[in-house]
Design brief:
Chains A, B: This is Sulfite oxidase mitochondrial. Chains A, B: One of its GO terms (molecular function) is sulfite oxidase activity. Chains A, B: One of its GO terms (biological process) is sulfur compound metabolic process. 2 copies of one chain form a homodimer. Chain A has 2 domains: 335 residues, Sulfite Oxidase, Chain A, domain 2; 169 residues, Immunoglobulin-like (Sandwich). Helix content of chain A is 18%, strand content 29%. The N and C termini of chain A lie far apart (94 Å). In chain A, a hairpin with a 2-residue loop joins strand 15 and strand 16. With 520 residues, chain A is an alpha+beta fold.
Chain lengths: 520, 520
């Protein structure tokens, strides 16, 4: 191993230009560096990273989120790439965002994390490709379809390389189309952050709202079939299938290709793990993994590896940091003071969860005794949404959505729903939703019930604050008419009314009928 | 009444210079305009205000508070004064803040609202004059002590004017010294705002924390004695004593002198209503009402009128807007859509309340199984603090403060307290306090329990979030040592640790002992 040398203006290391140290590994695969097969590259990259200081992670948990778009800027992650001569990846990624996802809420510019605006989120059961959320862990590689090939190795009978053309040939591999909801384990994380700050991961645990979820019809081949047909099956000791993506991942000073794994038991369910090239009848967008990604139904989105170039059959779960050290679910006693890889459990299948999308949080709703509520509900790993209940009073009384007001059941997709809830009360109310899945699982009651240091899986009953103005009440109707007569509007709610709310004579009359203090 | 004329560059109205329209009413009383005795002035002022547009109230409830000091700027209220040619009041007020209260948290620059910094708040039972909170409703008048006189009229046997010299003459009026906690009904309002936005009053309902409370020893004469000795007593039909202050108050386009009232039943308790000129052995600071103020024990601070120049005995509560239209406590069904003067009740005596001052909200506390908690507890209207209880678990288990760890009882003052609470648990905990007063009254459980549109009297159990790091736990002690060995610090809490938290071999050993998934 070479001794640590100073970084020569960031352009070379130990006298060797960066471009030669970390070359693009295959022709036609721009932005892909192979790390896992090159331990010496990994060592050199770590040494380079050690010589540099990087911008600290921005503090956005103890302070309000910026009101900008992009909301957060991934300085540190950009600098990691730049330090290794990989700035072109950063540039190509953002250009891809602007081309493929211009209208998103850009939660983090790099690695790109984009959230679906609420108006697009529940428009239809299927999310349009340009509105589907994106949670990337590295830059977007730019891979030519013709140059693409998939390697399968590890504990299989016959390691192989398969071209995309072969994979797409239906005479070789049977194809499947599956309607799949993919959800980031960070969905609704903002609620955990607002309650208590947690882990400030170097990649940034993005402050997602309810829009880190989306549904698409994916076309591809079941991984099980590929393993059987192309590799002659897996060896008996193989228990996990590892997916390696062409993106570069960083963790505590070390460099990796993105790697995760899923159990063989999941893969053998055929359509539950697809190698997919099509999303809603179109080629995968680059930002979603073009030309090929894994689609693991009902699991945390992180397992559906993008830009998938290698699959390894393993006896144990992947040791890649995304699998071993990330996406762990900790008990509340565990935090910065004591978390380890081995004391969290791995988030794979997703629990039942839901969200109210309309009305929006803190919305003023003027109504006549009923408020329409709309949202999504989902349960992972083949469980479907059975019942959705909405409470207009913080969780005391619950109303169930009618089947007619819910989209149809799918094994691997959400249901959208709406309900008109009776509301007599005025002022600030807390509306909440809870969902029951096919196994009778339901959601934790409060955010604290399931708060965890890594801020994953905010599956507690989703709560929104609604300011109810019930104009079926005479006093309210009178005030609304008064506001209109003054050429004013009810909102902004906090804006004071400029005129006297009560005539002094009326006030005195009331006060003499019901004095402010006892008479004796 | 003159026809509305355009404002001549803001310097005159209807051809008359503003300085002649609204002259200072007495020699040696700078910044005092008499409005209540001059209905024609009030009408003219209203007309002038109608000709102008004023800066809207700043929105600070739906968005994060500025991190500035002053936190909020009272543009509108300054403009009201300027429109009437009273800008010198604005200037003198701020000069007085800088002289008398330089170190405060300036919540609102005009009318001045200043909060005591936490480090000064519970240093001692008596709050130093320079650290006592201030909630003014208008500018600070600048009154010469020698020119000062107090008028008493209304339903008394003999209306009088009394000079300050006479009032202070112990051979004429018996004096009293009373230890009094004065509390703004806005104390801890920030908790109500953070839960739900409420009324955006034109004066600004300041976003107070726990520091809108303070305790001082006031010297003065009981109002009861003055009424008896100077006025020969009140008439039988007199039920309320109205206090009028020399500051100018605005409400919905009209102009007033500050006016409030308290019941005769309160006044006749002798030391419970003082006319005070001394605060902690010193002359009243100008910002606290020099040369004379009312001190109404156990009532909302708003009744302790400053720059008190007139007292009227009335048959009914004052019709001044501060008494009739402000400081009302509304039911939760009442809000912008339907509040009136007559459907809220008047806040006079203050209920039992308390606050945790240390640890601070969101503080990380590294400890060995016990955490010290400190704060204040108070109950109004002659009730004293009997018992203080602290819960380290959101309100499930409560520990009582020892009498030795509380300051002594007073009829009209708070008690400061401290307690060491056993804490085994780690991570984010919710600590809360509740107090029981001498009538066995205690506090509502949650902010929502008593949330009200005008955001007054946040007397629910005060809750703070504490991140507990219990270093008596071996894994925690190990991590803290590791952090020290790396030359790092535990805080900021959200900063990721830069090194691997677990050796891969240790991880694998654990994972083989307790596999991530069942073996069959």
């Amino acid at each position: 191993m070479a001794k640590v040398s100073p970084l020569d203006s960031g352009k070379s290391f130990g006298g060797i230009p960066l471009s030669q140290l970390f070359p693009e590994s295959k022709l036609g695969w721009r932005g892909y560096v192979e790390w896992e097969d090159h331990p010496e590259r990994k060592r050199t990259a770590s040494e380079i990273l050690k010589t540099k200081k990087f911008t600290p992670i921005p503090e956005f948990q103890f302070v309000p989120l910026p009101q900008t778009n992009p909301v957060l800027v991934g300085h540190r992650w950009k600098e990691y790439h730049e330090a290794l001569g990989l700035k072109s990846i950063v540039d190509f990624s953002w250009a891809t965002v602007l081309k493929e996802k211009p209208g998103m809420i850009h939660l983090l510019d790099f690695p790109y994390n984009g959230e679906t605006p609420r108006s697009e989120l529940i428009k239809a059961k299927i999310t349009d490709n340009k509105w589907h959320f994106v949670r990337n862990h590295g830059g977007v590689p730019d891979i030519d379809e013709g140059a693409y090939e998939l390697e399968i190795g590890g504990l299989v009978n016959k390691p192989v390389k398969i071209s995309l053309k072969e994979l797409k040939d239906p005479s070789k591999f049977p194809q499947a189309e599956v309607t799949v909801t993919i959800q980031c384990s960070g969905t609704r994380r903002i609620e955990q952050i607002q309650l208590y700050p947690g882990d400030g991961d170097e990649l940034i645990n993005a402050p997602w709202g309810e829009g880190a979820i989306g549904t698409a019809v994916y076309r591809g081949v079941p991984l099980k079939k590929v393993l059987k047909i192309a590799c002659g099956g897996i060896l008996p000791e193989a228990k996990h299938l590892e997916f390696i993506g062409a993106d570069t991942y960083f963790k505590k000073g070390n460099v990796y290709n993105y790697a995760v794994s899923v159990p063989w038991r999941k893969v053998r369910q055929n359509e539950e793990v697809l190698l997919a090239w099509e999303m809603n009848g179109k080629p995968l967008p680059k930002i979603h993994g073009f030309p090929l990604r894994a689609v693991v139904t009902g699991y945390i989105g992180a397992r559906s590896a993008k830009w998938l170039y290698k699959i390894n059959a393993l006896a144990e779960p992947s040791l890649g940091p995304v699998q071993a050290a990330e996406y762990l679910y900790y008990n509340q006693q565990l935090g910065k003071q004591n978390v380890k890889m081995s004391n969290g459990f791995s988030i794979q299948g997703m629990p039942v969860s839901s969200a109210i999308i309309f009305p929006l949080d803190k919305q003023v709703v003027i109504h006549e005794g009923e408020i329409e509520v709309k949202g999504w509900s989902y349960s992972g790993d083949g469980n479907w949404v059975q019942r959705v209940e909405v409470s207009p009073d913080g969780g005391h009384v619950w109303y169930a959505c009618a089947e007619e007001d819910m989209t149809e059941k799918h094994y691997h997709a959400w249901r959208l729903w709406s309900i008109r809830v009776p509301v007599n009360a005025q002022g600030w109310l807390e509306f909440c939703v809870r969902t029951w899945d096919s196994n009778n699982n339901t959601e934790p009651t409060f955010v604290r019930s399931a708060w965890n240091w890594d801020l994953h899986v905010t599956s507690s009953c989703h709560r929104v604050k609604i300011y109810s103005v019930n104009k079926s009440k005479p006093e309210t109707a009178k005030r609304l008419a008064e506001i209109e007569a003054h050429g004013e509007t009810f909102e902004p709610l906090t804006r004071p009314l400029e005129w006297e709310l009560e005539d002094t004579q009326e006030y005195l009359q009331q006060m003499r009928k019901h004095p402010r203090e006892p008479l004796d």
